[in-house]
């Protein structure tokens, strides 16, 4: 099997490069959109218990739908290709970003907020100099969780013509080729691990005060 995998890599290197690039592109785009939605919603959810329920409930309801089922539901609406895949992955990625952001903002000690107001900070200054820096560790943890989940789930995009490494896995299933199944699984696992390592390095850079 190892020989078969090596032979496939040598004969399909260009195709593999395209699939890896597509997999990363779909994953990152979905993560960026999810972060752009999840962070502001998480901040709104942190305002009160009532706002938390209102903001998080829709995304929690959508999250219980399996990714593959959600992709199938989107086909009559968006057709096939990258758009429905990115939409499904974005919905999958929003909850961890949203919930961690909400927890991060709520975990800021009251005395820090009161002290900042006591020295004359405006609400805008309070947000950018106290609240966001204080919530950033939890926020980044949520984004990291979403990143790993999205990279793993992007394999399903191939099922509706979205491309990515899922093409190798589904080809292996269709042809009953174990070598392709193993290769596809290993590449997805490697991308997940590598993305985690890179994100951890970025986190240490942004939160270097915690690692001094």
Distance between the termini: 47 Å
| Overall number of strands | 0
What does the largest sheet look like? none
CATH homology superfamily: MetI-like
Q: Per DSSP, what share of the residues sits in E-state strands of 2 or more residues?
A: under 5%
Contiguous uncertain segments of 5+ residues = none
Mean pLDDT: 86
What is CATH's topology name? MetI-like fold
Overall helicity: over 70%
Quaternary state of the chains:
single chain
Shape: elongated
CATH architecture: Orthogonal Bundle
Structural class: mainly alpha
Count of individual domains: 1
- At the first level of CATH, the class is Mainly Alpha
State Rg.
20 Å
Number of helices in the DSSP assignment? 9
Q: What is the string of SSEs from the N terminus onward?
A: HHHHHHHHH
Give short descriptive properties of this protein.
single chain, 9 helices, MetI-like fold, elongated, 212 residues, mainly alpha
Describe this structure in words.
The chain has 212 residues and is mostly helical. The chain has one domain (2-207): MetI-like (MetI-like fold, Orthogonal Bundle), CATH 1.10.3720.10. 82% of the residues lie in helices and 0% in strands. It has 9 helices and no strands. The chain has helices at residues 2-11, 13-45, 49-63, 67-78, 82-106, 110-118, 123-153, 166-175, 178-206. α2 packs antiparallel against α3 and α3 (49-63) packs antiparallel against α5 (82-106). The mean pLDDT is 86.
């Amino acid at each position: 099997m190892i020989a078969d995998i090596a032979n496939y890599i040598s004969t399909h290197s260009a195709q593999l490069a395209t699939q890896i690039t597509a997999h990363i592109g779909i994953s990152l785009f979905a993560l960026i959109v999810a972060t752009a939605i999840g962070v502001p919603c998480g901040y709104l959810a942190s305002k009160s218990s009532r706002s938390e329920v209102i903001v998080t409930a829709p995304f929690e309801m959508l999250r219980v739908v399996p990714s593959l089922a959600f992709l199938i539901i989107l086909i009559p609406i968006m057709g096939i290709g990258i758009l429905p895949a990115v939409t499904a992955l974005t919905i999958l990625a929003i909850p961890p970003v949203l919930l961690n952001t909400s927890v991060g903002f709520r975990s800021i000690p009251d005395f820090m907020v009161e002290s900042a107001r006591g020295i004359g900070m405006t609400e805008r200054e309070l947000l950018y100099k106290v609240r966001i820096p204080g919530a950033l560790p939890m926020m980044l943890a949520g984004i990291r969780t979403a990143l790993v989940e999205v990279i793993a789930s992007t394999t399903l995009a191939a099922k509706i013509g979205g491309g990515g490494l899922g093409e190798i896995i589904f080809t292996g299933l269709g042809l009953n080729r174990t070598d392709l199944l193993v290769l596809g699984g290993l590449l997805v696992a490697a991308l997940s691990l590598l993305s985690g390592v890179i994100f951890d390095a970025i986190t240490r850079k942004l939160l270097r005060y915690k690692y001094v």
